[in-house]
Inverse folding.
C-alpha cells in the first residue's frame, strides 16, 4: 500500500490510473507474441508433445537431444506463471489450460507458425527489400499440419458426408498435404480408396512417413504430381469417381480466375465419371470483420501477405459456371467464411 501511495504522490492519481490501464491493455498483445514463440519452440523441438503425452516429466529428460536447459527452464517458468504448466522439484507437467489449447485450437497455433518466416521478414517485405515467395516462404509442413488440424472441426466432416452420400469409391485428392483429409474420409468410409497428390516434394515425403504408420495405408496412395498436369493420372486411374480439393484452389487465384477455370475444365474432361467436391474459403466482408474481429481477420492477413487471393462465394459460382460445371449441392457457412460444393 505504501508503494502505491508513493506512485500516486509522484504521478498524481489520474495519471497513475491511466498508466496502469494502458499497460494492462498492451499486455495481451505482447504476451500473445511471447507465448506463441515459446509454444512454437517447444513444438518444433518435440518437447511440447513429450510434455503432452506424460503426466509429468523431469526437466532433465526433456534436454536429451541437445536442448539447452537454461533456455528450457526459462520458457517453462514463464508458462508456469501463465498457468499453462506447473514446474516443481525439477519436473514439469502440463495443466488443463494448455491441454485445451492443444486440442482443437492446436491447428491455429501450427498454421500461424507456418507464417512465422513471413512475419520475421515483415519489415523487409514492407520496405520492398524482400518479396514473397522469392525471398521468403511459408513452412510448408506446418501449413499442412495446421490446416489439417483445423479442418477436422468442420470442413472434413462436411466433405466426407458429401462424398459418402454420393457414393464415391475412389477419391483423387488435390493438394493432399499430410493426408489429413484422406485419413478422415477413409476412417468414415471403410470401403473407400484414395490417391493423394501434392506438388511439394518435402510435403509428399512427410505424407509418406505418416502414411506408413497409418491403419489406412493399404487404401491410400500418395504421389508427387502437379494438379495442372494430370493426363497421365487420368489414364492410370480411370475409375476415379470423386475429385476433392480442400482449401487448395485459392492458392492459384493470384494468377487470375482463368487459371482455376482452366483447371476445372481439364478435370471435367479428363475424369468424366468424377464429381468434383470443393471446400474453399469465402471472403468475409471487411465491415463484418470490423464489427466482429474473428480469427478470419488473421486468416485474411496471412493470405494477403503471401499473395493468396480469397474470393466470395459468388465468385466461386461464376468460376464453376465458366468451366461448364453444374452445382449439384452447396453449403455456404457465412459465419465461418467457408463454402462447400459438389459439381458435375
Amino acid at each position: 500500500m505504501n508503494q502505491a501511495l508513493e506512485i500516486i504522490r509522484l504521478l498524481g492519481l489520474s495519471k497513475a490510473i491511466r498508466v496502469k490501464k494502458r499497460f494492462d491493455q498492451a499486455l495481451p498483445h505482447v504476451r500473445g507474441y511471447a507465448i506463441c514463440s515459446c509454444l512454437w519452440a517447444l513444438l518444433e523441438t518435440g518437447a511440447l508433445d513429450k510434455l503432452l503425452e506424460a503426466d509429468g516429466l523431469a526437466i532433465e529428460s526433456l534436454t536429451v537431444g541437445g536442448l539447452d536447459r537454461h533456455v528450457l527452464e526459462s520458457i517453462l517458468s514463464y508458462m508456469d506463471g501463465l498457468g499453462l504448466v506447473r514446474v516443481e522439484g525439477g519436473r514439469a507437467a502440463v495443466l488443463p489450460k494448455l491441454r485445451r489449447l492443444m486440442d482443437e485450437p492446436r491447428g491455429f497455433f501450427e498454421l500461424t507458425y507456418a507464417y512465422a518466416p513471413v512475419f520475421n521478414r515483415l519489415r523487409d517485405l514492407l520496405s520492398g527489400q524482400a518479396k514473397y515467395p522469392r525471398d521468403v516462404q511459408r513452412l510448408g509442413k506446418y501449413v499442412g499440419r495446421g490446416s489439417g488440424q483445423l479442418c477436422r472441426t468442420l470442413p472434413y466432416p462436411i466433405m466426407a458426408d458429401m462424398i459418402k452420400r454420393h457414393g464415391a469409391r475412389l477419391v483423387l485428392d488435390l493438394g493432399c498435404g499430410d493426408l489429413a483429409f484422406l485419413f478422415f474420409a477413409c476412417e468414415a468410409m471403410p470401403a473407400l480408396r484414395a490417391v493423394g497428390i501434392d506438388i511439394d516434394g518435402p510435403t509428399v515425403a512427410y505424407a509418406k512417413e505418416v502414411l506408413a504408420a497409418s491403419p489406412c495405408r493399404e487404401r491410400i496412395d500418395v504421389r508427387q504430381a502437379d494438379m495442372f498436369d494430370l493426363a497421365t493420372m487420368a489414364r492410370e486411374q480411370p475409375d476415379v469417381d470423386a475429385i476433392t480439393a480442400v482449401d487448395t484452389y485459392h492458392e492459384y487465384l493470384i494468377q487470375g480466375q482463368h487459371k482455376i477455370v482452366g483447371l476445372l475444365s481439364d478435370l471435367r474432361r479428363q475424369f468424366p465419371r468424377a464429381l468434383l467436391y470443393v471446400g474453399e474459403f469465402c471472403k468475409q466482408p471487411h465491415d463484418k470483420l470490423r464489427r466482429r474481429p474473428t480469427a478470419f481477420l488473421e486468416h485474411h492477413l496471412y493470405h494477403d501477405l503471401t499473395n493468396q487471393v480469397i474470393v466470395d462465394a459468388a465468385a466461386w459460382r461464376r468460376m464453376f459456371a465458366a468451366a461448364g460445371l453444374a452445382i449439384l449441392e452447396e453449403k455456404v457457412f457465412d459465419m465461418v467464411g467457408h463454402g462447400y460444393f459438389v459439381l458435375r
